[in-house]
Design goal:
It is a single chain. This protein has a two-stranded antiparallel ribbon with strand order 1-2. The protein is mainly alpha-helical. It has a domain of 35 residues. The two termini are 20 Å apart. Helix 1 crosses helix 2. It comes from Comamonas guangdongensis. This is Ribbon-helix-helix protein, CopG family.
Length: 69
């Protein structure tokens, strides 16, 4: 489901959209195993990126692969 941020004010109420707007992004909650998180943190440090940037990149690459293959 595509989620569009409203141009002004709060997002419209929706039972399907969960999260909190932080600027142009929607903040969500995600649960991850400690081992996987450790690998994400190691990769983030090696890349000089934040944990969130690495997770976003991984999601983006997977979606690109799935929808453009």
């Amino acid at each position: 489901m595509l989620v569009k941020k409203p141009t002004k004010g709060r997002p419209p109420a929706s039972k399907k959209t969960k999260g909190v707007w932080k600027g142009e992004r929607l903040q969500i909650s995600h649960t991850i195993t400690p081992d996987l998180l450790s690998k994400v943190d190691q990769l983030a440090a090696a890349m000089g990126q934040s944990r969130a940037a690495v997770i976003n990149l991984a999601i983006y690459r997977l979606l690109e692969q799935e929808f453009h293959s």
